[in-house]
């Protein structure tokens, strides 16, 4: 089996699963309980929070645990909107955001908020000048992802941070779900970023654990009320085992980053250069300015899901551009926003690499690609 769908989810590290099992079986108390089992759980929870904070270069009080990237994104947008609506009801998100952000923005637009979508250029990068023109006196929130999940374009977070430097009343949220272990933390956690979302299963943690970074002093409304957990901002019993395992996954991923990224980038380069040799293959990703792990391409005239299943027959797993939208059969939203015609966007498939992959798998993929490509000859004419 060759697994090239790491942007959808990653395999949990063995050490991470061992941590989860150990905590789940030995430290199973509720952190809110007063007895020793509860105290032990609290100690693990807060140690994990401190470790995550140290790895991201922020304060432990700025780290909040959620159920995943989707919840973190929803909380960031809706929590900010409800907290700041008395000051304005205008929100800006980029046109290429993940559905967790775009659907949250859409929901807010149906509940009294005005939403504008910052456009991107033909390569999939947010147009900062166009974004600047959308800002109004009543703008309360700007949300732009760090790394696009469909094509891997690294967004100009630093430039947007500069744009917002003299606008302290605007909350700046970054969806960093695809960024961990792919680009330096300093790129997406600038001093101007107020909120950032993360998802553990994207960096070899377990599913069901997310992180929301909230800069000290920034206020957001709670979406979950009840027992007062997470500083009374997210009430529900914490998933201590999952959080401890995810803290370990984050440490392992960032520790490996210096060695892993050149290896991943080299695999991407080999695949991209090979695909460029095939007539009728359209590459939607580049090396410069893009994450080192994502390659998005299409075979002219062949729908993406056909290509995905053709590789699956050889136990090679890739995806159409977004795992969250693939079963709905939707064309890549990012490509549409870039101005790619829908017919071409529907051909797009995504390869997403990881340090778990190696060059022998790349060679096998390219061998199978030749067979898949040959079978599409009649369609490509």
TrEMBL record:
UniProt keyword list: Iron, Iron-sulfur, Metal-binding, Pyridoxal phosphate, Transferase
InterPro entries on file: Aminotrans_V_dom, Aminotrans_V_PyrdxlP_BS, Cysteine_dSase, PyrdxlP-dep_Trfase, PyrdxlP-dep_Trfase_major, PyrdxlP-dep_Trfase_small
Cofactor(s) the protein needs: pyridoxal 5'-phosphate
EC number, as in UniProt: 2.8.1.7
Gene Ontology molecular function terms on file: cysteine desulfurase activity; iron-sulfur cluster binding; metal ion binding
Domain of life from the UniProt record: Bacteria
UniProt KW Iron keyword: yes
Family the UniProt entry places it in: Belongs to the class-V pyridoxal-phosphate-dependent aminotransferase family. NifS/IscS subfamily.
Protein name (database record): Cysteine desulfurase
Organism: Streptococcus hyointestinalis
